[in-house]
Amino acid sequence: MASSSEVSARRRERAGFWLYAASVVSIFGLALSNFVLGLTLLSLPWTCRRPVPWGKLTALWVFLGLYVLLYAGAILASYELETSARGATEVFTLSSLFIAPLLLRRERQVRRVMDALVAVAALLACQGLSQYLFGFGDIDRRIRGPFSHYMTFSGFLLICDLLLIASMVYARGWRSLWRWGALLAINAALLGSYSRNAWVGLAVALVALVLLRAPRLLLAFVPAALVFVILAPVPLLHRVTSIFNLRDVSNYDRLCMLEAGMTMVRERPVFGIGPDVVRHRYALYRPPAAPRYDVPHLHNSLLQLAAERGLPALFAYLGLNLAAMSLAWRRFRGEGDNRGGRADLYAGALLALLAFNVAGLFENNWGDAEVQRTALFALAIPFCLEAAEQDRGGRGDEERPRTGDI
Questions:
Q1: Which of 3, 144, 329, 376 is most exposed, with the fewest beta carbons within 10 Å of its own?
Q2: Helical ranges in 27-89 per DSSP H
Q3: What is the 3-state composition of the chain as percent helix, strand, coil, each rounded to the nearest 5?
Q4: Helix, strand or coil for residue 138?
Q5: pLDDT computed for residue 1 by the predictor
Q6: What are the angstrom distances between the C-alpha of 35 and each of 38, 112, 220, 404?
Q7: How far is 160 from 154, CA to CA, in rounded Å?
Q8: Cβ–Cβ < 8 Å for 115, 405
Q9: CB within 8 A of 390, min separation 6: which ones?
């Protein structure tokens, strides 16, 4: 029989887990999510009762620490120190990645947070689809759910969609009725958002999934594309084909942003021009033929990081993502590829990060707090499972909930 001290320790661990989970699933209300994350951080000395797996997660600590240090250096070297310093709240958001492996120390806990996040995404997708009843739905008034911008909406749904698809493909989630409903709602809302960057990220991730699971199914992409061309509404089809049209004003504008961003990087390659400074100084770097004088960002996460914070910060960001993706890939292969008991978790993290970063080539999704916080959970998944293995002497968490349980 467990002693009272052991019971108390377990209760504190559970409290830490539920606080972290609440901070992730409440991201549709950023202020609420930030409040819960703050409580999670303040209670960490009380809720984190297991040994910290420093050795197992060296890559996470190194690249995350390097990223934060370079962020501080970019602020100090900024052209506009006050403007850059006000944006230092990103460190608070990054703390959710640091604490995830400390509080999610069981496979079951990772699954619960992931399923809850997908369920919330399905509900928010339904809210977005309901906005068609209130005049939304065209290119000028895109559905955005509870978020302030349709890009935030699509970026959040994209990550959740890949986590859901992986669970359906690898963990027999296709037997769960609610997952089919979530899949339909999320993808319908993704299409309705008219967000091309999310579409490209999803397409690349789906190709990767087919290559992993059943390469022969790649042949099905051709008839599927023909069916889409025949059945898709004209505005949606026009939006898809505009991806490849260099005469499209939005596409040309992004090329101009690329040229301006490269000029910023050449001017200050080490620390960049400063966090949050691009939007204030874009007019100084824009090509004369650029459609816009002012832009909020460069619509490219990698270029935005390099321009704002320098090439070393970009290296730290890429290192952090590659560390998570390579760990997920190694564990996926090491546990039997498609037959592994946690293949859905590793494949979900891998595909979600792949889609997120591909979409980031056309949108500054890393700079969007709600999308970034969701991506940080996907980043944390392989590290959380690695920490769980240490707790069980390398055997992992043998307790798994039934498919479909939250």
A1: 3
A2: 30-42, 44-47, 58-76, 81-86
A3: 75, 0, 25
A4: strand
A5: 54
A6: 5, 21, 46, 29
A7: 10
A8: yes
A9: 53, 56
The total number of structural domains in the chain stands at: 1
In a domain, 248, yes or no: yes
Tell the residue number behind the tokens 């898709």, with chain if given.
232
Cα(first)–Cα(last) distance of the chain, in Å? 28
Tokens coding 405? 């349980």
Position 201, amino acid: G
Residue 396 confidence (pLDDT): 42
The model's pLDDT over 30-81, given as tens digits with 9 standing for 90+, comes to 999 999 999 999 999 998 877 777 777 899 999 999 999 999 999 999 999 9
* CA–CA gap between residue 135 and residue 343 (Å, rounded): 42
Whole-number Å distance between alpha carbons of 348 and 7: 33
SS (H, E, C) 306-367: HHHHCHHHHHHHHHHHHHHHHHHHHHHHHCCHHHCCCHHHHHHHHHHHHHHHHHCCCCCHHH
Query: What is d(CA 58, CA 40) in angstroms, rounded to the nearest whole number?
Result: 23
> Which two structure tokens, joined as six digits, stand for 40?
């999670």
Structure tokens at 362: 């056309």
Domain of residue 13: give its range.
Answer: 4-391
CA distance 357 to 379: 12
Which among 364, 284, 249, 381 has a CA at the least distance from the CA of 317? 364
Long-range Cβ contacts of 58-61 (<8 Å, 24+ apart): 59/319, 59/323, 59/327, 60/97, 60/101, 60/320, 60/323, 60/324, 60/383
Residue owning tokens 């809210």: 127
pLDDT of residue 111: 95
Residues of the chain with pLDDT under 50: 394-406
The predicted structure's pLDDT at residue 172: 74
| Cβ–Cβ under 8 Å, residues 104 and 113 | yes
Non-local (6+) Cβ contacts of 20 within 8 A are: 40, 96, 99, 100, 103, 104, 113
400 in a structural domain: no
Tokens 């895109």 -> residue:
142
The model's pTM = 0.91
Cα–Cα distance measured from residue 180 to residue 114, given in angstroms and rounded to the nearest whole number: 16
The single residue listed with the structure tokens 């349709």 is: 150
Residue 385 · residue 35 · CB < 8 Å: no
- For residue 203, the tally of other CB atoms under 10 A from its CB is 14
141: three-class secondary structure by DSSP: strand
Task: Confirm whether 403 is domain-assigned.
Answer: no
